[in-house]
Amino acid sequence: MQAHGGWQAVEFARLARPQEGIVSVYARGRDYHKVLRARLQKLSDRIGEAIGPFGHRVFTDSAPVLEAELAARSGQGWRGKHTLVLNREAGSMYFLGEIYVDMALQPSEPVTAHCGSCSACIDVCPTQAIIAPHRLDARRCISYLTIEHAGPIPVELRPLLANRIYGCDDCQLICPWNKFAQVSRLPDFDERKGLAGQQLVHLFAWDEATFLRMTEGGPIRRIGHERWLRNVAVALGNALRATGDGAVRAALQSRAQDPSELVAQVLAGQHISPAFAVQRNLQCAGNLFVHGVIAQPACRRHQRQLGHGHQQHLRATGAGLLADLAHVGACDRCALAAQKIVAANAHDHQRGAVRLQQRGQSLQRLCCGVA
How many of the other CB atoms lie within 10 Å of CB of 217? Predict the structure, then answer.
């Protein structure tokens, strides 16, 4: 699928830079909820000055209002195959807002759809979330997964996120009608520094105070620091697979002890090293990892992460254990624990094997719930 020229091509080009985080175009400025609500309220006040007091309430993606369908039925545009509202003069790059009033208004007619046989938005969707024209599976939509979804991002979808860390614009970038989109004249929507074009390594280093400061007044703040780290961790894992860059690997390892279970689940699946995933899954039980995997097979999930052949090799000798732990870059605590094991069991391999068997059983009870 070929991108159109101009701003659309510029945005698509960001995907070719896997170590750069992509934030949806709309989210780079001030929070549109605040901007539009304030402007809609001013418009309501002006209407009141013209006709007298009237009952009203303003909305902009802030209540269970079917605003896209209302916009289409009132002639503001037509529903594209990606379900968004398209307009011949502006494409889909605009916000919707409503003023509910307590008076009858002259109805306006809907407009004709102009998508024709085009299926560009369906074809370009990274996760194939547009399952049919005008039908979207939100559970697969990157915008939903990185913004609205509070839990872990499904493992099978993580590679498809690439370096998108907040939202996704692909179905709009590819749409021919968006060549007519115009840059907003409101300074509120100007791109803020520190969000667009930033390196994932830099964004992953933000503590909560920095996150709150950098996202103040913007839409990203509402997902919170934890989900921000979740999104960036997924993108970093994708960047690591694409580039093998040591700085990316180091960034992921830097949060190995992050207290967030949500972040830990992402890190455990990034294969920072064969040992790292198991270490982090055990939540600070690195010593049990060292004791257990050399004596007793892990569960199937951990077999996949560590590799059954690697387990067999670790079982062979204490020297092999130390060499392998050094090779995979195990944490200092695990390496120290391994040294202690080798020293303690050098004079009595049989007794050591029994002790390791018992600790292996403890490992399985801890991480796999095996009785």
Answer: 12
pLDDT in tens, 66-93: 999 999 999 999 999 999 999 999 999 9
Global pTM? Answer: 0.72
Active site members: 61
Residue with tokens 């402007």: 39
Residue 53: CB atoms within 10 Å:
6
Question: Do the bridges between strand 135-136 and strand 85-86 make them parallel or antiparallel, or are there none, so unpaired?
Answer: unpaired
Distance (Å, rounded) from C-alpha 16 to C-alpha 10?
Answer: 11
- Distance CA(84)–CA(353), nearest Å, equals 63
Determine the Cα–Cα distance for residues 300 and 321; give it in Å rounded to an integer.
21
Q: Give SS3 for 109.
A: coil
Rounded CA separation 177/167 (Å): 20
12-57 pLDDT, tens per residue?
A: 999 999 999 999 999 999 999 999 999 999 999 999 999 999 999 9
Which string of DSSP letters, residue by residue, matches 241-280?
A: HHH--HHHHHHHHHTTT-S-HHHHHHHHTS-SSTTHHHHH
Q: Which residue intervals of 174-316 are DSSP H helices?
A: 200-204, 208-214, 224-243, 246-254, 261-268, 276-281, 286-293, 300-306, 308-316
Q: How far is CA 34 from CA 63, 94, 189, 235, in A?
A: 14, 15, 11, 29
Give the pLDDT band of residue 218 (cuts 50, 70, 90). very high
| Strands 56-59 and 130-132, bridge-based pairing | unpaired
